[in-house]
Amino acid sequence: MTAHLYCWDPVINLTPANDTFHDRVNELHRGKMPPRSQKLVDFVTGLLARYPDLTQTDDTVWGDGPLVGNIIGDFINMSLIWSRYAEAIPFVVDTAHRHGLHCYDPQTNEFYPVNIR
Fold it and tell me: How far is residue 7 from each of residues 31, 59, 87, 100, measured CA to CA in Å?
């Protein structure tokens, strides 16, 4: 069983409180695949420094891999194994914020916005 966590660059203007949020996320998954943003690639690199990719080991929090393959332009939908979900969330959110990204947990509807200065 897996859980998901969405992270994105604020430039794409997604807001979980907006009625169209889930429709826009679905459109990202169904639309043409834009190139991966460097900001998201750097974010994934930071995540993999602590939790190796599933393509490298089974002893990880990721539910699929390669993790970089989940990047859609300025957005990523990450799959985490449920048994390590609670362990990984704080690290993922902290790493996202250090990279200037918002996070959203669809399991809890918790939004973790980055402070934009």
Answer: 18, 23, 17, 10
Question: Mapping DSSP to helix (H, G, I), strand (E, B) and coil, where does residue 2 land?
Answer: strand
15-42 as b/e: b if 16+ CB within 10 A:
ebeeeebeeebeebeeeeeeebbeebee
- Is residue 82 one of the residues assigned to a domain? yes
Query: Where would I find the beta strands (DSSP E) of 36-93?
Result: 71-72, 75-81
In a domain, 39, yes or no: yes
Q: What is the DSSP letter of 86?
A: H
Domain that holds residue 48: 2-112
Residue 117 pLDDT:
60
Q: Pick the closest to residue 117 from 5, 10, 2 (CA basis).
A: 10
Class of residue 12 by CB neighbours under 10 A (exposed 0-12, middle 13-18, buried 19+) = middle
| pTM for this model (two decimals) | 0.94
pLDDT digit string, tens, across residues 37-47:
999 999 999 99
What domain count does the chain have? 1
The reply to whether 53 falls in a domain is: yes
Structural domain includes residue 103: yes
